[in-house]
Amino acid sequence: MLNLVLFGPPGAGKGTQSARLIEKYQLVHLSTGDILRGEIANGTPLGLEAKKLMDQGILVPDEVVIGMISNKLDSNPGAKGFIFDGFPRTKAQAAALDQLLSEKNTSINAMLALNVNDEELIQRLLSRGKDSGRPDDANPDIIRKRIEEYNAKTAPLIDYYKAQDKYTSIEGVGTVDQIFNLLVDAINHLG
Ligand code: ADP
Q1: According to a count of CB atoms within 10 Å of the terminal CB, is the N or C end of the chain lower?
Q2: Which ligand 1 atom minimizes the distance to the CA of 8?
Q3: Exposure on the CB side of residue 129, measured as CA atoms within 13 A
Q4: At what angle do helices 62-74 and 91-103 cross, to 10 degrees?
């Protein structure tokens, strides 16, 4: 199996690049942000709870997203591999993911981390907000809060994956094609 964590701050381009990677490598795309927005759209109790946090740029509780990922892993038994996009976002999530994958006799092959500076991120998110309709993209204060949450809780995962020798840094500023080529290069060089 090929199991990849596509990592990076909000606005780094994870969704865009995931879409291309799943096509090239025939992987299943698991985006916790997309799953949560699906719950909101369906008006489920989980969606209603999550929306309150997401609209403020705050992470939803670990148990919630870990449960969602566990379900998705179980419902794709024949997958060639997975791209995890927006998950894990905390050390507890990363440890849970390792455990879930080991129960299926598999593991993460690599964490591909898209590097984008804060100014570029804020610009991208504000311009995405104009057509995405996402409430968390519309307001600079919420965007700043998401970047703060990322720096406090999510960026430390770089060390978690470095310790497992799975961290690869990818330049995330450039054209979509250039960045895709860097990702493909990194994947093709995995041991
Ligand atoms: P982005 O990375 O562009 O901020 P996402 O679509 O990945 O957007 O996530 C949007 C929001 O959904 C986050 O700000 C957070 O509130 C919630 N969320 C998504 N994934 C997770 C996760 N793994 N853990 C906790 N909260 C999450």
Answers
A1: C
A2: 2
A3: 17
A4: 20
Residue ranges per structural domain of the chain: 2-184
Residues 137, 141: Cα–Cα separation, whole Å: 10
Closest CA to 121 of 86, 172, 167, 158: 172
Phi, psi of 20 (to 5 degrees): -75, -40
The preferred substitution site among 14, 46, 54 for testing ligand 1, maximizing ligand atoms within 8 Å of CB, is 54
Ligand 1: residues with CB < 6 A are 10-11, 32-33, 36, 53-54, 57-60, 65, 86-87, 89, 93, 136, 146
For the chain, the straight-line distance linking the first and the last C-alpha, in angstroms and rounded, comes to 13
**Span 36-82, pLDDT tens digits:** 999 999 999 999 999 999 999 999 999 999 999 999 999 999 999 99
146 is catalytic: yes
